[in-house]
Amino acid sequence: MTAPRPTGAPAPASPTTVVHTDTTSDATTPVGADDTATDDRIARGLVDGDEQCLAVAYQRWGRLVQTLAARALGDPREAEDVTQQVFVAAWRGRANFRPERGSLPAWITGIARRKIADALTARTRRIELAASLGASLERESPVRDEPERVLDRLVVTEELSRLPHVQRDVLELAFFTDLTQTQIADRTGMPLGTVKSHARRGLQRMRRNLELAGAGGRR
Fold it and tell me: How far lies 50's CA from each of 67, 101, 123, 132, in Å?
């Protein structure tokens, strides 16, 4: 069974056409056709830009990376995403591999640990954002953006796109133009009670989605 290719990495060529020369032998053998290829040989091919070596590395260590991610994240689908990211990063950063500093699987594992840490950080950020959404709508005075809230805006924008049209419009005015609910009612012509109702229902849906994402759940 052919292993899936990491998204963003080049499609591996056919094992019958991609040939990597073994410097210890006069023969040339396609890496993909040799299940006993050594880690060093795969590493050399990867650094040289041999796409077949990327596929072999994915076949050989992809399950290890996914197991590490699943244990840390508790979500198989998120672990699959992280695994893809690890091998894309390995391909793009292959020139940084230094065999004198460690083996190829150790290097890949190091990338995996960094990507897992990034995923956990993003999850914590989503949870914190979900907790702050309610408080932000209760403010009656505008609060100006701080530079660190740029990421919050990106996450909020994605979640807003999932809401019904009217709820989305009300919350966009609240989040992105810093209007209070009273000001939103004045601008839209909707009764204040209607504005509050749309904001509350939209906010509840956003918080539920963000909390599910933060807990590793699936929408």
Answer: 26, 21, 35, 48
Helix (H, G, I), strand (E, B) or coil at 56: helix
User: Which residues share a beta bridge with 21?
Assistant: 28
Exposed e or buried b for every residue in 70-90, given b needs 16+ CB within 10 A?
Answer: bebbebeebbebbbbbbbbbb
Distances (CA, A) of 93 to 32, 62, 115, 124, 141: 21, 17, 14, 27, 47
> Long-range contacts for 192-198 (Cβ within 8 Å, ≥24 apart)?
195/170, 198/166, 198/167, 198/170, 198/171
User: What is the amino acid identity at position 117?
Assistant: A
Report the candidate in 92, 11, 99, 12 with the shortest Cα–Cα distance to residue 52.
12
Residue-level pLDDT, tens digit, the chain, 219 residues? 444 555 555 554 444 333 444 444 433 455 554 555 788 999 999 999 999 999 999 999 999 999 999 999 888 988 999 999 999 999 999 999 998 889 999 999 999 999 999 888 887 776 676 666 655 555 544 444 454 454 455 566 777 777 887 887 887 777 767 778 888 888 888 888 888 888 888 777 877 777 666 555 444
Please check whether residue 9 is in contact with residue 56, taking contact to mean a CB–CB distance below 8 angstroms.
no
Query: Could you tell me which of 46, 51, 117, 107 has the C-alpha nearest to residue 82?
Result: 117
Distance CA 11, CA 60 (A): 17
Backbone angles phi, psi at 24, to 5 degrees: -95, 0
Beta bridge partners of 4: none
Q: What's the predicted TM-score (pTM) here?
A: 0.52
